[in-house]
Specification:
The chain is α+β, with helices and mostly antiparallel strands and 372 residues long. 28% of the residues lie in helices and 19% in strands. The strands form three sheets. The protein has a seven-stranded mixed sheet with strand order 3-4-5-6-7-8-14, with helices on both faces. A five-stranded mixed sheet has the order 10-9-11-13-12, sandwiched between helices. The chain has a two-stranded antiparallel sheet with strand order 1-2. GO terms for molecular function: 3'(2'),5'-bisphosphate nucleotidase activity; inositol-1,4-bisphosphate 1-phosphatase activity; metal ion binding.
């Protein structure tokens, strides 16, 4: 196995391995047919797959990294975890990559892991299996820096292909496990919630005058559509999703040059004491983030709450693709050239593909380093 002493890279490596184990658990529960559904609230479900997958992920990562804080979506309480749910392996492919300099000296107390064992539970129970993902996000000093999005049922309708895939990424390293397509020109394609929409979401979507709206379940699935080049932006202009829904997707999106914030354009903090609810909504893009922020209706913003943002990282490190500060303001270290380039982006319609996208269109699911 490749040797990598970096705490962050080891956590990401272990997270990839345990996400594959959790995905197999999720498939096994579906195959058995008894989902064990519990309704936690309106349009908020929990299944045996949620419970078993979380036990597997949290217990496994806790055994490997006992001093790191881990938060899962499901409130399961203390219990003895069966030995067959523990996964202690590492993924060598991750460990082959050099840790970014700003993450080299990270300590256990600076890390928080956010786990959504089954993102898209409603879709899981309704048979929309390609919407389902396993999310494991790694935050350092409140910043989402690494993430895993595992799609247990990817290719489930094609018996000739292997089912499932795992996408992972680390800021300043890249993202792996997918291939990017080129969006059609002169179109604006948005994605938003399939089952948790309301009037604020609808009015915000309408303000952009999109040519197409793709409504799917799961924050992880929506960000996959975004990084794969199938949509221009993911918009959810209402409170609803939580930190375990967005930490992993944000890290992977930022790893490929995109930006995920609340609807005010503020970076969300993923520290241990933050509110779990993303009360400012979610806005994710691969380019022209400022354009999308500027189009959010004022009356919608009045009904949202600005997010708590993390403290800036040292040495001028910026993880956002739009090169803004955590508060969404212009960064002082921007050059005149960068400012002029951003001004040129402020057009009536966003560009049809993100800047710097050099990935050719090809079969999705191939493992490659994809940077936008």
């Amino acid at each position: 196995m490749a040797v990598n002493s970096s705490l962050v890279m080891r956590i990401v490596s272990a997270s990839v391995a345990v996400s594959n184990r959790a995905s197999q658990i999720i498939r096994d529960v579906m195959k058995k047919g008894d989902l064990g559904i519990i309704e936690k609230g309106k349009n908020d479900f929990q299944t045996e797959a949620d419970r078993s997958a979380q036990r597997c992920i949290v217990a496994s990562l806790h055994k490997q990294f006992p001093k790191v804080s881990i938060y899962g979506e499901e409130d399961l309480g203390p219990e003895k975890i069966p030995a067959d749910l523990i996964e202690l392996g590492f993924t060598e492919e991750v460990l082959k990559h050099k840790c970014p300099k700003f993450l080299e000296d990270v300590t256990d107390d600076q890390v928080v892991i956010w786990v959504d064992p089954l993102d898209g539970t409603a879709e899981y129970t309704q048979g929309f299996l390609d919407h389902v993902t396993v999310l494991i996000g790694i935050a350092v000093k409140g910043h989402a820096v690494g993430g895993v999005i595992n799609q247990p049922f990817y290719n489930y309708q094609d018996k000739d292909k292997e089912m499932g895939r795992c996408i992972w990424g680390v800021c300043e390293v890249g993202a792996f496990g997918f291939t990017r397509e080129v969006l059609p020109e002169k179109q604006l394609i948005l994605t938003t919630s399939r089952s948790h929409s309301n009037r604020m979401v609808t009015e915000t979507i309408e303000a952009f005058e999109p040519t197409e709206v793709i409504r799917v379940g799961g924050a992880g699935h929506k960000v996959l559509l975004l990084i794969e080049g199938k949509v221009h932006a993911y918009i959810f202009a209402t409170p609803g999703c939580k930190k375990w829904d967005t930490c992993a997707p944000e890290a992977i999106l930022h790893a490929v040059g995109g930006t995920l914030t609340d609807m005010f354009g503020i970076t969300m903090s993923y520290g241990p004491k933050v509110k779990r609810l993303n009360a400012g909504g979610v806005l994710a893009t691969t380019s022209n983030h400022k354009f999308f922020v500027s189009k959010v209706p004022e009356h919608v913003l009045e009904n949202l709450e600005k997010s708590e943002s993390p403290e800036p990282l040292p040495d001028g490190v910026c993880l956002r693709g739009d090169n803004k500060s955590c508060s969404g303001e212009e960064r002082e270290e921007q050059t005149v050239q960068q400012e002029e380039e951003e001004q040129e982006q402020q057009v009536e319609e966003p560009s049809s593909s993100p800047e710097g996208n050099k990935s050719p269109s090809s079969d999705t699911g191939s493992v490659q380093d994809t940077k936008l």
